[in-house]
Amino acid sequence: MAMRVLLQYLAGEVPEAERADNVAALWAWVDDLAARPEHVLTVAVGEGVRVSADGVGPAAGSVFGVSVVDVADLDAATALVRDWPELAYGGAVDARPELVR
Predict the structure, then answer these.
(1) What is the pLDDT of residues 33-78, one digit of tens each?
(2) 34, 22 in Cβ contact below 8 A?
(3) Would the CA dihedral through 72, 11, 20, 88 be positive or negative?
(4) Which residue of 1, 4, 12, 66 has the lowest C-beta tally within 10 Å?
């Protein structure tokens, strides 16, 4: 049985001299993921806002995108992201399964 998994991409620290190449590698990687049958959706995000009890302010954290994939299990989800280019710069990917009621 397939499960829907949210992949949350967390930025690493890419040296300025390598940023253009890294951005190109990231978009190529996203294109490859999008071509896979497991892929449902990918959204890259920019700076935003955070809403809290204290009000609205700049978004915090290092999230810069998410994907949704349909896979057999979390192992299959993590296998899809083991070659994500940002990992080399300290980036990470959180794989979170959809909760079903």
Answers:
(1) 999 999 999 999 988 999 999 999 999 888 999 999 999 999 999 9
(2) no
(3) negative
(4) 1
Using alpha carbons, list the distances in angstroms from residue 93 to 9, 54, 97. Answer: 5, 29, 13
Of all residues in the chain, what percent carry a pLDDT higher than 70?
99
Total domains in the chain come to 1
Residue 29, SS3 per DSSP: helix
Contact 88, 12 (CB under 8 A): yes
Q: What is the DSSP letter of 84?
A: -
Provide the residue range defining the domain that includes 42. Answer: 3-49+58-97
Residue owning tokens 């192992």: 75
| Reported pTM | 0.91
